[in-house]
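HUMAN: Now follow token order:
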Amino acid sequence: MKRLYKSLMFMCLAVVLGLLSSCSGTDYLNAIPKKSTALISVDMQQMASGKSDEDKAGMLKSLLHVEDASKCGIDISEKIFLFESADGNLGLCAKVSDEGDVEDWLTSLAKQHIATEVKERKGFHFSVLKNSWLVGFSDQALLVMGPVVADAQAQLQQQMVKYLKANEDEGITASPMFERLETITSPMAMVAQAQALPEKFVAPFTLGAPKDTDPSQVVIAAEMDVKDGILQVKGETFSFNKEIDEALKKAAQTYRPIKGSYVKSMPADALAGIFMNVKGEQFLPMMQSNRSLQTLLMGINQAIDMDNIIRSVDGDMAIVMPSLTDNNMQMTMAAKLSHAKWLGDVDYWKTSCPAGAKIANWGKNAYFYTDGKTSFYFGVTDDKQFFSGSDQLMAQYAVKPSNHPIDAKIQKLIVGQKLAMVINLAKSSGSDGSGKDDAISTVTGLLTPVFGNLTSVVYTLKVKD
């Protein structure tokens, strides 16, 4: 009898444990699509430790107009996740603590004309926030996705129904990206495919990948932090494809500590800058296989042997983009050289220009190329520094300190790193109407209420020795 009683107790315990595991505290994550291309986890409890509950809820206030976090039905003690779905929509996922409170909160927003009236669809509730963000929720998860125009909202809502009813096998926790995210201990962490980034910022992350690599196969894993208005991203690139992963790891060993020769040359109002220290002969194959950089140099390469110029590099190198759109390519490049023997080839370049293009002198060891659409000024200083730019002034100042350089705090973050990229947030958002820029705006907009105004993003590469 005792044995039977004990067996029944074990069976009851197993049933209870089964029920608990099927309704675990992470079930809300099933609403994040498994094939998301980018995923950011934000632990507000850790990030805002020492701050009031009101400050901790600043992210929700920014996007969702939450006035009282304790009454909106969202559990801010659990991580909030930002993601980009495979079709390019941005999303936020949070755990629901009280479904009724969520509905009451949205109803109050509807009365203020901030959101639409809450409606039920296939067992879930939906509203439209600020005309472009769809809010859907269940008793477990709150999903916010967009931005979308009115005509596309019905289709997105239909997709969100599938996400909200997804099981564990269909959600993000079953993906390799989530598994990698869980290994990052930072309060704010990111795992993202390179294809999820704005196209103009992809180049540094895909350097070293084989030539035909799709950006979806290169993944960035990073810890994130905010200090002094700077979003600091310390990450590494890898791939779930073994061959690509090995190539990326090998390429990372090419970088040497940045000495800081050109950190003062980047103007504070420039869009972006990439900094590194390399030996050109080792770096050239990486550059040749990088589609983003090749596209950037496409017009110039037809007349100027950039490969030979890169081979002569030995030391710090910086590529700065004052602005960059499809219609107006601007950039400067500065680099320390081991030699400038290629200057002897310039006369040949002059005679072999494509029709309608020319190369002419504009100073000592200084030349300019133009084809009527693109202009490129370049040259070498007496102390063997390569300089170039889209116009004469930009080229000359590529190796000189700017009158208004990037903040000294940013300069300090670059020096000593193996690879660094700086993004000016004021110029990155909406500069070309790209939806990808919305991702940067959304993330920084969510962090601003907690950390104050964000001015820059500084990405540095973590290299395992």
